[in-house]
From TrEMBL:
Record SUPFAM superfamilies: 6-phosphogluconate dehydrogenase C-terminal domain-like, NAD(P)-binding Rossmann-fold domains
Top-level taxonomy: Bacteria, Bacillati, Actinomycetota, Actinomycetes, Pseudonocardiales
PROSITE patterns in the cross-refs: 6PGD
The name this protein goes by in its record: 6-phosphogluconate dehydrogenase
Key words, A-Z: Gluconate utilization, Oxidoreductase
């Protein structure tokens, strides 16, 4: 049994706490939501843990995570370990690790994949940090990862920053996969010959080269709403697709699929596109092509 402090009990953190407790570990959670928190403050959380402590942070990336790490740098003691399991940018990890190291506190960055299904199915974990710190946290990783061989659900990607870098690329790939499925769905719907689109996509789940968990989730969504009419075609991005493309540019790695998927999300948020109005105007000017006037 391992004792763990868990900060951030949202959709992921809450289910992670439940999975860890089901595995026999003691988890003391903190969240600003009084309905789910176990303690009233970070100070109370630290006091409830026996030294050397392990604290896992699952809060939004950027400033919220940086603030939490700064607070813990004044609350934790030498020999303690902090794990950032959020979607932080890998460049933040070195800064966080150096701040904590000045107090003798270890640091791991862990990319976590599995979404709301992770409680039952387990989480894919990509960790960055020292071998010694990885060993300290391994009972936690083993409880969170899916059942089966460790290497199929957990990876020690490299030094500090490598875990979040791996998760960043993972999410960039995810953008491309989702976009490909989405475009295939739209093409099937647009055709005059395919009569049952949900049945076709459901049939891809076994024996085909495009089968995947994402495909299973699309089938689940189509079971609930066969034409997805209940949804608006508006898609946000978490930021990791952008970071992936920045790294592709920095390393001169062509990534046309991921870039197209990200730009498609940008397009989904445009009710009116200035660019496409310009294209319409140009087609009308050089070729006299028909245009649709505003308000028509």
């Amino acid at each position: 049994m391992v004792q763990l402090g868990l900060v951030g009990l949202g959709k992921m953190g809450f289910n992670m706490r439940e999975r860890l407790r089901a595995a026999g570990h003691e988890v003391v959670g903190y969240d600003r939501n009084p309905e789910v928190t176990d303690t009233g403050s970070l100070e109370e959380l630290v006091s409830a843990l026996d030294a050397p402590r392990i604290v896992w942070v699952m809060v939004p990336s950027g400033e919220p995570t940086r603030q939490i790490v700064a607070e813990f740098s004044n609350l934790l003691s030498e020999g303690d370990l902090l794990i950032d399991g959020g979607n932080s940018r890998f460049t933040d990890d070195k800064i966080n690790a150096e701040l904590l190291a000045s107090k003798g506190v270890g640091y791991l960055d862990v990319g976590v994949s599995g979404g709301v299904w992770g409680k039952d199915n387990g989480y894919g974990l990509m960790a960055g940090g020292s071998d010694a710190d990885i060993a300290k946290a391994m009972p936690i990783f083993d409880a969170l990862r899916p059942e089966g061989p460790r290497e199929e659900g957990f990876s020690h990607a490299g030094p500090v920053g490598a875990g979040h870098y791996a998760k960043m690329v993972h999410n960039g790939i995810e953008y491309g996969l989702m976009q490909a499925y989405a475009e295939g769905f739209e093409l099937l719907e647009a055709s005059d010959i395919v009569a049952n689109v949900p049945e076709v996509i459901k049939g891809w789940q076994r024996g085909t080269v495009v089968r995947s968990w994402l495909l299973e989730l699309l089938v689940h969504a189509l079971d609930e709403d066969p034409e997805l009419d209940d949804l608006e075609g508006y898609v946000e991005d978490s930021g990791e697709g952008r970071w992936t493309l920045e790294e592709a540019i920095n390393n001169a790695v062509p990534a046309p699929v991921i870039s197209a998927a990200l730009f498609a999300r940008f397009a989904s948020r445009q009710q009116q596109s200035s660019a496409m109005r310009a294209v319409a105007a140009l087609r009308h000017q050089f070729g006299g092509h028909a245009v649709k006037k505003a308000g028509e």
